[in-house]
Amino acid sequence: MTPARIVLVGFMASGKSSVGRVLAARLGVSFVDLDAEIETLAGCTIPELFRDRGEAEFRDLELEATVRAGETVPAVVATGGGWMSRPEVRDLWPDAVYVWLAVSPETVLERVGGRHDLRPMLDPETPARSIRVLLEAREPDYAEAGIVVETDDLSVTEVAERVVDLLGVEDSAEIETQPSE
User: Fold this and answer.
1) Do you find a cis peptide bond into 94, omega within 30 degrees of 0?
2) What integer pLDDT is reported at residue 113 of this predicted model?
3) Which CATH number describes the domain made up of 5-161?
4) Please, which residues have CB within 8 angstroms of residue 173's CB and are 6 or more apart in sequence?
5) For residue 39, what pLDDT is reported?
6) pLDDT score at 1
7) What is the DSSP track for 77-112?
8) Strands 5-9 vs 75-78: parallel, antiparallel or unpaired
9) How does strand 147-150 pair with strand 5-9?
10) How many beta carbons lie within 10 A of that of residue 110, not counting itself?
């Protein structure tokens, strides 16, 4: 039986939010997008939050959003790109299934396009370099996930179906309704 919480982790533009919506609908469970929850708590967008209050405030709100999201089960949770690098947040859900949506730096750059202003962790002057450096730094944390899906050449629906296959879940009846924490 699959745990009550499936957590999608990975780098920016790996498809966590898009895949999470499709996966949750496919499984008949709730969907929680931590970045959207952070924006609600902050009362502004994430780029505005970084610009006006800094990364430390973002990380505080990320922790608060994670704690709140822990109340929603069963659920698929889409995390932010740096979430998995923070043991204090990921350790809140020891029984969750972590799914790494892996993506290449080239695909990230393509998916982000010219909208570097919406990605506060990227240097707008050297986005390709900052993607490579940040992704390389985070990959060991993403590798802690029990399931890995390469997303570069797959559609959102194909990624969601691959996750379902790897979980070995046919429908929502196989999802636990309470976490075993």
Assistant:
1) no
2) 76
3) 3.40.50.300
4) none
5) 96
6) 57
7) EEPPTTGGG-HHHHTT-TTSEEEEEE--HHHHHHHH
8) parallel
9) unpaired
10) 12
